[in-house]
Fold Gliding motility protein RemB.
Amino acid sequence: MKQFIFLFVLCFSVVSFAQVTSAQYEKYPVFKECANADVIAVESCFKNTLQQFIFENFKVSEKVFAENYKGNVNVLFEVTKEGKFKVLYVDGIYDELKEEARRVFESLPEVEPATYNGTPAYVQFTLPIAIPLVAPGESIIQTAEISKKNEREALVNEYDALENLPYNNEEYKSNVNIPLSHHNYSLFDPALNRVGLNNHTAQKPYVYSDVNKYYDFEAANKEILKNKTSWFGRKLWNEHLVTIKGKDYWLTLDAGVDLQAGKDFDADIDTYNNTRLVYTQGGIGKQIGFFGVIYESQGRFADYFNKYAESIRPDGGNPAIIPGRGIAKKFRSDSYDYPLATGHISYTPSKYFNIQLGHGKTFLGDGYRSLFTSDNASPYPFFKINTTFWKLKYTNTWMSLRDVRPEVTEDGSFRTKYMANHYLSYNITKRLNIGLFESVLWQNDNNRGFDVNYLNPIIFYRAIEFSTGSRGGNALIGISAKYKVNDRINAYGQFIIDEFSTSDVFGGKGSYKNKTGYQLGLKYYDAFGLKNLYLQTEYNRVRPYTYSHNTVVLNYGHNNQSMAHTLGANFSEFITIARYQKGRIYGDAKFIIAKRGFEFNTPEDSSFYGGDIYGNEDDRISDDGNDLAQGNTTNFFHAEVQAGYVINPATNLKIYGSLIFRDFDPKVDTETVFKNQTTWVNFGIRTDLFNWYYDF
């Protein structure tokens, strides 16, 4: 009731000191300083004495001064029948001001109480205390009105008052994602994998501020800065094109390219890529970051690349899907036009949480490949939550994917499906990390859309799958591990299970339900004592039918591409990689030997052998006796060497030359799988913001 009276009085009070009639009385309370005042002067003497006491004793905190606050602290108080001051309610935006108001009123001396019919009575008042303090006699309301008037008049200088501060590489301390690039990530990978660190390296892309704790981006870039003083020289060799920084925000804006010119000598094809891009990144306050890129691209590639792009073309007449990029339109008579936009918003409400909403890619694992989720497919919409505390990092990601096959297209619209995955990373010791993975895909059947069952971040997906119908979803589980032998050698691995029939997985009969895969890898930093030499070797093996499903929409794919390993399933693969950078000069070498099993897809044999994740399990060759690389067994060799020069480390602008040699040797030549050999030489200049994969 008292709070109601207080709010009522505040709404209708038009003077600086208001009386709340709580009892009838004939005489105001009397301070001892007012004992000799005339009866008609007692009221003004009481008010002036009270205001003078507050003006002399009220202490405004340093925080309020520092934030230049202007406003009122409103106090509802009572003078009791005993003449004591009793605070009933204090209203103010700072706790420090409210506590100070109570302290000052508690220190007021007792007064002669108000009287009614000659007997003591209590009375209530409301007093607004102006901040900054106002001396007695000055009108609080008038002062506030003048202050507000002056503030409004000062707004004419609002534009000129905007601060343009020097940009100091704010991105390195921000919560913006570091663009996924295998070579760039290899530069700071050694710093993240030292024995004794309590970080987590499987969930990618990384956030700049997480990596900057262990690897000094600014110091690394300063080592290779060129001594340029002109605006053009600095922007070309050292800096972002446009930088804007104010008190609580920053932004960079850059133009970029991915220009390639080359030749496929075996197919006699002149290749090229012409990408123009604009990208921006920035931060608002300390908690919000953003990143966005717009690409406009046309290109023609080596023969094997073009044929694969056309083999995964979508329904609707477009000729191809550029692997890792997106749907392409026809350009000229022999090229593709494939525009794309990616980006994300990153919000970090506390040191424990990072929340992201974007259109892009994610990657789970410590290897070059991932059997869980990789950046192999086209970008997709995602929502991600990273939770980090103690020895744990828990990543929940929800994605919207597309099935673009003609079999599921309806009214010109591609089929939507959804994926949710969880990855829990746990540092068991200072050397050993394990990760637990689970994922589920479901489609928009029965118009259920995004099923809220899968929003629960800790639920066991298999249980949900059975509760929503045995074919309502496709669940996978996996486990990963990493062991730091020392600061220079790391071992890592993954194991994926796409079928939960224990007897079939471990029964040894070659059941088609034995849908498993594993990865083993080793990294060697500063190899053989040569600083910045990075060596990696990796073995991947995925059994037939893994990632596929008898309801084809529920396979582990997006835009006719695998969401995990580039080669799909039914293969074994051995990879060796070497990377080196000294100053701005860098070089990469990669060699892959694989044995793959394809479908024949001929009138004589249309069975599904388990290599194409878009195959139907109901068309499988047999229930048992399935073996690795069955079907049209193909020996695959891929060698790729690249050398280049970093033009601008701030924007990852590089000039390079590359050589790819590829040998593809199937057991039987068919229309889609046939023996071919490729020697592809390429030269280019590119802003390195994503991984190009040519090794399939």
User: Anything to note?
Assistant: The radius of gyration is 35 Å. DSSP finds twelve helices and 32 strands in the chain.
